[in-house]
Amino acid sequence: MQQVLGVCPHDVVKDPEKWMEFALELRARGVLDCAFTPEACFERFAAGFSTYTLAYAHPLHAVRLGRELGFVPLAAHADTFDEAVLIAHRQVPSPSRDKMSGATVACIHGSPSHAAYLIDLHDRAMPAPASWVARTNYPDVVMAVAQGEAQYGVVLKSVWDTMMTQRDRVRPFCATAVRRLIHVFMLAPSHRDRAGEIGRALTGMHGDPRGAGVLRRIGCSHLVPVSQAGLGEIEAALTDCGLRTAA
């Protein structure tokens, strides 16, 4: 059966070629011989879970892969966390987290940004908003706020930081810093007996110039191990804030 690399749509939209290079590097190192086809749709990405040999998944998907399909957590980007930027309509006076609870908030339900925001609220013992405007992508979240369909919005920080348009139509006023949500490389249960070997290959890739260059292109200096306990901590944080399913 062909080996397949699946990558979170967040990370393939702007530069899918970097993940092709990553797949080729895995092959050159004798780690996995994975085919890679970019998938920009979260629903289709999730529908393909059972076909992946190695998946780079956002935290809610990683928990699902582990809990429902028996995937094994291997590694994550060092010191890189999924956080949310909170934005407001430009006519909202003095925007704040407190005011969001009584306002209409645009977001992608079941996404890492949604999770980071809910965890942040849970940590502060603050109520979640009662009214949401659901969108399926971040440009539409920003547009909903800019056009007044929602007073506030929640955007993944890594997306906000690279967003080239629409940013000037809304007002960002703070970002979360929960530091509990990460994208995780997850290995299919069919390759569980090689988890240690493949995990060491990933976390050691930065040790030579070629591997370090491939990692820089996907946005990290090096990869660090993620254990079952580490994945359990992510699931516990999601459970505490009342969010268990992924978009």
Describe this structure in words.
The protein has 247 residues and is α/β, with parallel strands linked by helices. It has two domains: 3-80 and 182-240, D-Maltodextrin-Binding Protein, domain 2 (3-Layer(aba) Sandwich); 84-175, D-Maltodextrin-Binding Protein, domain 2. The chain is 37% helix and 20% strand. The protein has ten helices and eleven strands. It has helices at residues 17-28, 42-47, 59-69, 97-100, 112-123, 138-146, 157-162, 195-203, 209-217, 228-240, and strands at 3-7, 34-36, 54-57, 72-77, 84-89, 104-107, 131-134, 152-156, 170-175, 184-187, 223-225. A six-stranded mixed β-sheet has the order 2-1-3-10-4-11, with helices on both faces. The protein is elongated, with a radius of gyration of 18 Å.
Q: What characteristics describe this protein?
A:
single chain; D-Maltodextrin-Binding Protein, domain 2; six-stranded mixed β-sheet; 11 strands; 2 domains; 247 residues
Summarize it:
This protein is of the alpha/beta class and 247 residues long. It is 37% helix and 20% strand.
How many separate structural domains? 2
Question: How is the quaternary structure best described?
Answer: single chain
Question: Helix count, per DSSP?
Answer: 10
Q: How many strands appear in the DSSP assignment?
A: 11
Residues in helices, as a percent range: 25-40%
The biggest sheet amounts to:
6 strands, mixed
Give me the CATH superfamily of the largest domain: Periplasmic binding protein-like II
Q: Assign the CATH architecture of the largest domain.
A: 3-Layer(aba) Sandwich
Question: Which segments are poorly predicted (pLDDT under 50) over 5 or more consecutive residues?
Answer: none
Q: What is the fold-level CATH name, i.e. the topology of the largest domain? A: D-Maltodextrin-Binding Protein, domain 2
Mean pLDDT: 94
- Secondary-structure-based class equals alpha/beta
Taken in chain order, the helices and strands follow as EHEHEHEEHEHEHEHEEHHEH
Quote the distance from N terminus to C terminus: 28 Å
Rounded to an integer in angstroms, the radius of gyration calculated over CA atoms is 18 Å
